[in-house]
User: What shape does this take?
Amino acid sequence: MGEMIIQFFAESGFAMLSIKSLIVIVLACVFLYLAIAKGYEPYLLIPIATGMLLANMPGVDLMNPATDGQNGGLFYYLYQGVKLGIYPPLIFLCIGAGTDFGPMIANPKTMLLGAAAQFGIFFAFLGAIVLGFTGTEAASIGIIGGADGPTAIQLTGQLAPHLLGTIALAAYSYMALVPVIQPPIIRALTTKEERMIKMEQLRPVSRTEKLVFPIVAMIIVIGLLPTAAPLVGMLMFGNLLKESGIVPKLVETAQNSLMYIITIFLGLTVGATTNAETLLSVQTLGIIAMGLAAFSVGTASGVLFGKLMCKLTKGKINPMIGAAGVSAVPMAARVVQKIGQEENPSNFLLMHSMGPNIAGVIGSAVVAGVLLKFFA
Assistant: This one.
């Protein structure tokens, strides 16, 4: 009996556990703690962390590819939605169906703030080149600065699939840490008087404007940049469903059921690509560092451009809303709203922040299309 017990443990997964795998399993547990106990993007971090945990358990074959006469692992088949570029556009469809473009239409100037916040992408791109990454790898690393997980996955899946796990983990981690990363940058670059600026109420946006915008945006953006079609097209399609007002069941499905189903599949499979050998390397540390720099520079460039607009409009624009130009919808806008209320309880900046926030989503998709055009 004793020999049987010894043999059982000798052939168990624990006997094959390496130090690197153990470190990643512990990291996955930390992410689960942050998601469950601290509430950091639980809809994203719980599936990602669980995928990390399962894929790095010894002896598990969930990501094994299919071969002649042998089926692949469960996550291998789910991963095809990432590999073939299916999940990210579907996420954009769901985002479009749940987003009101009205704040951006009411104040088109805020689109400039969304564009300014994309500077972080190009900063990280150049930094990655300096660190010795290839052009395709640098483009994939730079897109982390857009703080848009689906866009990062879509671009990396086509340009540098070997970096997908690390880049997706970094992108979603920084999205989850928006409430931690952005406030110090905003406060460092603005004065108390600037943070207290109250903005005028936005003008009402007609139904016709809301209907026309996604159609015109699709025609113009995709006409100029066909490579942006999957993301921009699905984003605008989702919004068109919402604003049409005649397909409520489709909108409800996109906003809820479809969004949650795709999030589960996307999170699990992205987490499963973060194997110990790839994650625990010097290259990974460089990617994480450049991703943080990209996100920080994107936030800073948005705020600085907001300060410029504040001066040009003689104090009518609160420069903090520039920080919402990164694509983390709606977390970045909520951060601006929270800081604004801390400085002035009567200050309501959420709707004003949603303008650059939405523009940032569109901007990051456009930048991804540009990078695809040059590097695919």
Observations:
- DSSP finds 20 helices and no strands in the chain.
